[in-house]
Design goal:
heterodimer, A: mainly beta, six-stranded mixed beta sheet, five-stranded antiparallel beta sheet, 11 strands, globular, B: mainly beta, seven-stranded mixed beta sheet, four-stranded antiparallel beta sheet
Chain lengths: 106, 114
Amino acid sequence: KQEVTQIPAALSVPEGENLVLNCSFTDSAIYNLQWFRQDPGKGLTSLLLIQSSQREQTSGRLNASLDKSSGRSTLYIAASQPGDSATYLCYTPLVFGKGTRLSVIA
Amino acid sequence: SQTIHQWPATLVQPVGSPLSLECTVEGTSNPNLYWYRQAAGRGLQLLFYSVGIGQISSEVPQNLSASRPQDRQFILSSKKLLLSDSGFYLCAWQTPGLVSREQFFGPGTRLTVL
């Protein structure tokens, strides 16, 4: 059964810093991997979707990578801003990680 | 464009009462539909998914049930709520046919069982 782990559970950084969020999964036979953002008390916003045949996807200041062989994905956020503060969730079909709670301090 | 609606947005119910949460999708046909629950201090857990009318797959045994009476309507129900049913319930849709497609989530329903 697929297990998705996200490290760290929480992260606090000063504004402007570049940061990396990590996601690992146990079953590499995935169709895709998706990164979401969740603001407190809100639903999920899709950030990036990486298909199993892809190695990375970029959207603005966000870059997500996928290494199926090692069972890892990273979400890179460049030049972080206070508005980036949220919980970031990693998802492989049908299974979510528990998320990384990010705080960007002005 | 496609949109997904959930209601109610918040709900407070006594233990033992029934539950009905509704999710509807607009702008697409025959979507895959999903119900997830996010309990306090825990991650998002898949409860049910459906690939078509009347087709429901359950991922976790519990006192909840799901139904899909229409193509773009997905309902989560319970006959008798438990305290442990409290949480944030999210509905999601996906383009039909391929699990490799992106999932899109609704705004969620926050359920408190007292």
